[in-house]
Specification:
It is built from eleven helices and ten strands. It is an alpha+beta fold. Bound molecules: flavin-adenine dinucleotide.
Length: 379
């Protein structure tokens, strides 16, 4: 581990590693095969403080940094990418309430989120508003001391199982400035869910539509000021993108470790694959590229912790670079395994399938380039 980390961070990393290797890794293939959402195991992560990693401690959070979070998610994803990524989304939603909600709202919701008595989803995307998220159409109309919300959210991780939905809806027609954020509880009349999507990876967590048909939400459940929701959603994504990148890194590291072991064991042409120089060079490139991605991730996390003015750009650069590199390394690890890499029993094809979506969600890697270049060319 890099000398840049403190003893406390090494301890946090080791704790996450132990949890991942004991509680996640032995089950990851079965959860993928059976599309099983391991809610009980996810809840046990809360006992280690992983449900509110960078949430303040007066509401049960761990009060840790984004760098700590990256260390934790990298380890969790080594155990299971898909489950780790869901825990990341729960953290993002909880952080939004903790950071932007009123004290009353924080006290009411966050302790139950940090203990994982309640599980949270983050609802921004709509069928007609993906990359152009600010064009969202779900509408929240004020009615006395409540808002009545109608619309459809698309691709929501945890939909149908989560207890709490942090949801962005339009309170005026003023573009991104007309969006507000709300807490919506499962069971509220008018709230329903689409069918669980059949998808390539991330099978250990459900993805579905969240459908709102005249859902009446107390005005007190609005997070922060009216019209500030889009800003909050984007702030959540800065850290979310680092976590998604950290999860990609953890998955790719497992794939690389498997490739190294396999290359040493597999005999062809009378020698181990690892004895061919082209194979040695391939493994060397995989290691170098993954370490470069790791350095970039921790640089970006440090900037977000330090609240530097270029933190958003760095989070976008890290998300783009780390997820692309991790996918390539995992795919190369599959190639090292030859035909066996294509079989589920070797556990590498699952990682490739799981990592593919990291290049798409929390802003596609093309949108990361939009964010980076916009910041470079401004002024
Ligand atoms: C498994 C899964 C889980 C998800 N979980 C959640 C969740 O929990 N909550 C949530 O809110 N959302 C979630 N999403 C949604 C995800 O964030 C979106 O899929 C993503 O933002 C892209 O939106 P889109 O799919 O509508 O693609 P589109 O925006 O339609 O993009 C299609 C293609 O066009 C490209 N493109 C679009 N605009 C530009 C541009 N200006 N310049 C260049 N290229 C461009 C994109 O990069 C992409 O390649 C999830 C998605 C998946 C697949």
């Amino acid at each position: 581990m890099s000398a840049m980390f403190t003893d406390e961070q090494v301890m946090i990393r080791d704790m996450a590693q132990k949890f991942a290797r004991d509680q996640l890794l032995p089950h990851s293939d079965a959860w993928d095969r059976d599309s099983h959402f391991p809610v009980d195991v996810i809840k046990s992560a809360a006992e280690l403080g992983f449900a509110g990693i960078y949430v303040k401690d007066d509401v049960g959070g761990s009060g840790l940094t984004r760098t700590d979070a990256a260390l934790i998610f990298e380890q969790l994803a080594y155990g299971d990418v898909s489950t780790a990524a869901f825990i990341s989304i729960h953290n993002m939603a909880s952080w939004m309430i903790d950071t932007f909600g009123s004290d009353a709202l924080r006290q009411e919701w966050v302790p139950r989120l940090t203990s994982m008595e309640l599980i949270a989803s983050y609802c921004l995307t709509e069928p007609g508003a993906g990359s152009d998220a600010a064009s969202l159409k779900t509408r929240a109309v004020k009615d006395g001391d409540a808002y009545v919300i109608t619309g459809t959210k698309q691709f929501i991780s945890g939909a149908g199982v989560s207890d709490v939905y942090v949801l962005m809806a339009r309170t005026s027609d003023d573009g991104a400035k007309g969006v507000s954020a709300f807490i919506i509880e499962k069971g509220t009349p008018g709230l329903s869910f689409g069918a669980n999507e059949r998808k390539m990876g991330w099978k250990s967590q459900p993805t579905a539509q969240v459908i709102l048909d005249g859902v009446r939400v107390p005005a007190a459940n609005r997070i922060g000021e009216e019209g500030h929701g889009f800003k909050f959603a984007m702030a959540g994504l800065d850290g979310g993108r680092l976590n998604i990148a950290a999860c990609a890194l953890g998955g790719a590291q497992l794939a690389l470790d498997k490739a190294v072991e396999y290359a040493k064991e597999r005999m062809q042409f009378g020698k181990a694959l690892a004895e061919f120089q082209s194979m040695q060079f391939k493994l060397a490139d995989m290691e170098t590229e993954l370490q470069a991605a790791r350095v970039m991730l921790y640089e970006a996390a440090g900037r977000l912790d330090g609240k530097t003015p270029d933190a958003t750009r760095w989070c976008a650069m890290a998300k783009r670079f780390v997820t692309d590199t991790a996918f390539k390394v995992a795919n190369d690890a599959l190639q090292v395994h030859g035909g066996y890499g294509y079989l589920a029993d070797y556990g590498v094809e699952r990682i490739v399938r799981d990592l593919r979506v990291h290049q798409i969600l929390e802003g596609t890697n093309e949108i990361m380039r939009v964010i980076i270049s916009r910041d470079m060319l401004k002024g």
